[in-house]
Amino acid sequence: MKEQTESRTNQKSRRKPSWPKLLTRPLPSGNTQWRIDVVVDGNRIYESFKSEADAITRAWELYDDRQNAGKAGFELPMAKRVEAADCYKLLASYPESSLREAVEYFIARKAQYAAAPALAAGVEQIVTELTGKRGERTVDNLRQYWHKFAADFGDRGFTEIEADEITIWLDRTASHPTTRQNYRRAIVRLFNIATGKKWCVENPAAKSRKDDSLPPEPEVFKVEELARVLEHADEYGLLPYIVLGTFCGIRVSELTRLDWSKVNLAERTVTIEARTTKTKTRRVVALNDTTTAWLTPYVRRSGPVVQTVGLREQLHELRTAAALKRWPINVMRHSFGSYALSAWQDVGKVSYQMGNSPQICKRHYEQIVTKSAAESFWALRPAADAAGKIVPMKAAANV
Predict the structure, then answer these.
(1) Do 285 and 276 form a contact (C-beta atoms < 8 A)?
(2) Is the overall model pTM greater than 0.90, yes or no?
(3) In this structure, are residues 146 and 190 in contact, taking their beta carbons and an 8 Å threshold?
(4) Residue 264 backbone zone (phi > 0: left; psi -120 to 50: alpha; other: beta)
(5) How far apart are CA 207 and CA 186, in angstroms?
(6) What is the signed CA dihedral for 95, 101, 106, 108, rounded to 10 degrees?
(7) Nearest partner of 217 among 141, 324, 331, judged by Cα
(8) Is 198 in contact with 186 (CB distance < 8 Å)?
(9) DSSP label at 198?
(10) What is the 3-state secondary structure (H, E, C) of 73-136?
(11) Do 230 and 379 meet the contact criterion of CB atoms below 8 Å apart?
């Protein structure tokens, strides 16, 4: 048997295969060079040989490889061959893509993540994991954004959702630039977590289109508007809330969890604990002259600075009493940032008070209000007698 195999091998080495074609080229030395120059599966094979026998041996190797590849195809069941033909028809509109690329894409995007939860179930799992580890307000905000997204994509896998789909959804869901930016940031965060859990191969939300329109300038209280708010705030138990938010720049989420025990009037400081801050970083806010003048009669040893039950309704009533048409988002904090930066001309000081970066403070609050308006803002003081109106005072040197 072994002798018969060797005999067939010797016969092959003496005759040429029908494919590939062997080429010859005379060399200056008088010898002949044998070459194989052929394309196989899109790849060019170019080889040269010193002897005809070596060239024939290599040619037979290529010939047998091609025959075996064809044989492997014919050994596939008929149903598989028909399915492959159908797949090629589906790819006809994409001539630059191969069937192999399509299969590899499927494995990477779907088959590999078959055990991952659908988006809606994944959102619930992530929210549960974040509860207690992140601020309550942060988790509530993320839950709202993610539930809105899951209402349209909840039954799909994380890895099935494309960047273009997210872009279209953002355009449809949020018309205001700031709202759209907030939604996009939340969805990017969702997919970052999903990627870390191996639920998807990449973050499509990060590739979604950003809104290139300019964000609106922050809205602030006019001095006369704030005077009316301060005049009526005590009627609704909101004066400390308004003063600390507007003259110190403390976030609403921090104010609603602030206890009077953290307000030190003697040291003129307010300690914002890390667990209540957006950045999870403790900071000590300085009480300026304006804040101290308003806050002194209200300071207690302990207890919440503001009652959160019914807070929304009380703010609505205060707005009506102060004859304000609307209460802009974050108007107290934006007012502080704008008037403080205009008066102090110290972006580092303002950013620390607010718990923001200097870059954000500069970008949002620089040149929003005039210096004369800032002087009037910081000069607002309570009247000397309880029945009196709010009176503006000359701006103190230490505001």
Answers:
(1) no
(2) no
(3) yes
(4) beta
(5) 14
(6) -140
(7) 331
(8) no
(9) T
(10) HHHCCHHHHHHHHHHHHHHHHCCCCCHHHHHHHHHHHCHHHCCCCEHHHHHHHHHHHHECCECH
(11) no
Residue entry with tokens 């400390």: 240
What sign has the CA pseudo-torsion 34, 39, 43, 44?
Answer: positive
User: How much is the CA Rg of the chain, to the nearest whole Å?
Assistant: 37
Euclidean distance between CA atoms 263 and 226, whole angstroms: 23
Max intra-chain CA distance, the chain: 122
Token reading at 219:
């809205």
Closest to 359 (Cα-Cα) out of 350, 370, 367: 350
**β-pair partners for 209:** none
Long-range contacts of 268-275 (CB under 8 A, 24+ apart): 268/292, 270/244, 272/355, 275/135
Q: Per the structure block, which two tokens stand in for 20?
A: 């590939």
Query: Which alpha helices (H) appear in 271-365, and where do they start and end?
Result: 289-295, 311-321, 331-344, 347-354, 358-365
Q: What is the pLDDT along the chain (399 residues), one digit of tens a residue?
A: 445 444 445 555 567 887 888 899 898 888 999 899 887 766 788 899 999 999 999 888 888 877 776 655 555 677 777 777 888 788 777 777 787 787 777 766 665 666 789 999 999 999 999 998 888 888 999 999 999 999 999 999 898 899 999 999 999 998 788 889 999 999 999 999 999 998 988 899 999 998 766 667 899 999 999 999 999 999 999 999 999 999 999 999 999 999 999 999 999 999 999 888 877 789 999 999 999 999 999 999 999 999 999 999 999 999 999 999 999 989 999 999 999 999 999 999 999 999 999 998 998 899 899 999 999 999 999 986 444 456 554 443 344
Phi, psi (deg, nearest 5) at residue 264: -110, 100
- Phi and psi at 368, nearest 5°, equal -80, -35
Comparing CA positions, the residue from 200, 204, 202 lying closest to residue 117 is 200
Q: Do 242 and 230 form a contact (C-beta atoms < 8 A)?
A: yes
* Residue spans of alpha helices (H) in 197-256: 223-233, 239-247, 252-255
- Both tokens of residue 14? 């003496």
| End-to-end alpha carbon distance in the chain | 105
Tokens 């108007």 appear where? 331
